Structure formats: C-alpha cells, structure tokens
Amino acid sequence: MPNCTGDICSNQQYVTERKGVINYSFSGFCPRLFSVTLNEKKDKTGQTIEVVVEGHPGTYIGLSAVEHQLHKMDSGADLSPTEVLEKMNSFDEQGNGTHSFSWKSRDGLPNPFVHYPSPSYGMDARQIFQYAGLVTFTDADVPQRPDRCEGEFASCMDGTCYRLQKRCDGFADCTDASDESG
C-alpha cells in the first residue's frame, strides 16, 4: 500500500485536541541487494550467454529479456514499478489522495514517480476519519461540526448550504469554494 495517513493530535491533561491529518506516499518496493553477472564463456560458439543472479534468501528477482529496439517502442505490455504504484494510487479516493506526478520517458527508461504530501479535506475529526477510510468504534466524544443542511444539500465550511449536484462542477457555490474541494 503506497499511501499512509497520519493523524496529528495534542494530548493535554483533560482534552485531546486534533491538530490535523496529512497523507504521504512511500514506495512499497524493498530493494534488496543482489548481483547479476554475465558468463559469455559458457557457450563456446559465442551465440548465447549465461546470466547468473545471486541474492539473499527471500529476495524475489524477475528477469525479462526484450530486444533493445522493441523495448524503446514501449509496447504497453511492460510492467514497471511506476505503473504498479500509479495503479495502486488509483484505488484511493480522488478527493483525498496524495498528489503524484510521473514523467514519461521516450527512451524506454523507468519513469520517475514523485509524491507530494497533501492535507485532508475533512472539516472535523469525524470527516477526517471518514475520508481516510476508517471506521471509528469508541466511547470517546469525536468532535463533529454542526450540520444544518439536509436532504439534497451539503455544508460549506462557513456553515451555509449548497446543492449536492453542484459539488465539483467548476463553479464556487460556497463563498470559500469548499464545494470544489472534493
């Protein structure tokens, strides 16, 4: 799982105050050391070579051989760590995920993938837990902003209401444009 959500709290003597939540990403690939050597002397005809791979126990190594010119064409059947991370990030909620960017290489090189931390869009502790995909079971008082909007309406950050159909439509229906934040 390439994303992690951190909840920042301040515990006082009688009060626990929630300071914020941040989402950040990390690479789920664990680079273990291994060595690859080519033995050109195995076949006396010089038509083939032997690839020798050595690594620590538990190291998984996958090899794939493709002609150089075919590899540069990027046929779409190749699998890279960047493509795996992009797909895993696509399962997160779009309004609450991390911001990511990758560069596409024309030379068949691996695509660099960069993640940027992002805050949660939640207005209170209950929404932050909900956006993070957490179900909270507690007897503690989880603070919740009063919501006077009912039915087909949702609440702006300033307490006013807007129609749910107007969410993320490109026009700010709230004075603070919170209806466009996810």
TrEMBL record:
<dbReference type="Pfam" id="PF00057">
    <property type="entry name" value="Ldl_recept_a"/>
</dbReference>
<dbReference type="InterPro" id="IPR050473">
    <property type="entry name" value="A2M/Complement_sys"/>
</dbReference>
<feature type="disulfide bond">
    <location>
        <begin position="156"/>
        <end position="174"/>
    </location>
</feature>
<feature type="disulfide bond">
    <location>
        <begin position="149"/>
        <end position="161"/>
    </location>
</feature>
<protein>
    <submittedName>
        <fullName>Uncharacterized protein</fullName>
    </submittedName>
</protein>
<dbReference type="InterPro" id="IPR002172">
    <property type="entry name" value="LDrepeatLR_classA_rpt"/>
</dbReference>
<dbReference type="InterPro" id="IPR036055">
    <property type="entry name" value="LDL_receptor-like_sf"/>
</dbReference>
<keyword id="KW-1015">Disulfide bond</keyword>
